[in-house]
Amino acid sequence: MSVRAFLGGACLLSGLFLATPEQTALAQTPSAPASSPAAAPAEPAAPPHQKWSFDGAFGQFDQASLQRGFLVYDHVCSTCHGMRSLTYNDLAGIGLSSKAISDLAHSKQFPGPVDEDGQPTTRPGTPDDHFKSPFPSEAAAAAMMGGVAPPDQSRLALIKPHGADWLYAFLTGYRMPPPPGAPMVPGKFYNEWTDGHLIGMPPPLVEGGVSFPDGTKATVDQQARDVSTFLVWAADPHRNARHHIGKGVVLYLIVLLLLAIAWKKKIWKRLDGN
Ligand code: HEC
């Protein structure tokens, strides 16, 4: 194998290992047809970039922020949004102990089997249960929430372009009262970062709305940052492990590359000598 072919292979491999699902998802998003630029709706502005510990190919989640973010999800968002892809056991990934996990699961009530009189029962959750959804069905959720069901949060951070930056901008983007001239619709709220600036979700975060056991001050800004971090983790819980593997793979490829160069030099020295 020539050094060039080897290098090409190495780049391809590291690309495969290091691409995050966001990048893969973004790469697959079809771009608008170039032929009708006038008809296309104006692209929403990109949200301001925030500094995230998990940014970049080797970034790692900050566990303290993940735990605060889960608390915000659990106390606030989960009253309206489900997160079906995660089980309580998955929370070991943000550093919760198995005791904390089973206590948490136990505190949630799930529908149980019907009893001998045919009446529905409930049972406490177990660590293997998927996160409890707040509504029994999408239709029930829509009916309760004025027509639009709150989306499941399992993959929110992946579906939205600029996932974490957008989530943070959105959660801190409510304006009350709305700017002059903005459309007013009963039951809708003005948000800078949602389509058409109107959304059926009331502003979920308030100053001091939760209290963090680690003593961090629960400003709206802090809660938005932490819950965005948690939602990115929830959409991709194995990123830390993958980034560890990624580092190993790159190191391994560099060593192979150095060996290949040394080997090539050795062979050519012999040939040149003849
Ligand atoms: C009172 C119920 C309620 C709570 C609490 C709530 N949401 Fe929502 N959320 C909704 C509803 C309803 C929608 C759909 C609204 C719509 O599309 O008009 C929604 C939509 C969203 C969207 C999609 C917005 C878009 O433009 O596509 C995101 C993101 C979101 N919620 C995040 C959160 C987060 C994070 C929390 C917790 C901090 C939270 N929500 C708490 C009801 C709620």
Task: Supply the key terms.
two-stranded antiparallel ribbon, binds heme C, oxidoreductase activity, 9 helices, mainly alpha, oxidoreductase, disordered N terminus, 4 strands, 274 residues, heme binding, iron, transmembrane
How would you concisely characterize the structure shown here?
This protein is mainly α and 274 residues long. Helix content is 43%, strand content 4%. A hairpin with a 7-residue loop joins β3 (189-190) and β4 (198-199).
Characterise the protein shown here.
This protein has helices spanning 3-18, 21-28, 63-75, 98-106, 138-144, 156-159, 163-171, 220-235, 239-273, and strands at residues 109-111, 122-124, 189-190, 198-199. The chain is mainly alpha-helical and 274 residues long. It has a domain at 244-274. The strands form 2 sheets. Strands 1-2 form a two-stranded antiparallel ribbon. β3 and β4 form a beta hairpin. The longest helix is centred in the last third of the chain and has 35 residues, at 239-273. Heme C (HEC) is lined by residues 72, 76-77, 79-81, 145, 148, 150-151, 156, 167, 170-171, 194, 199-202, 204-205, 227. Heme C is lined by residues 72, 76-77, 79-81, 145, 148, 150-151, 156, 167, 170-171, 194, 199-202, 204-205, 227.
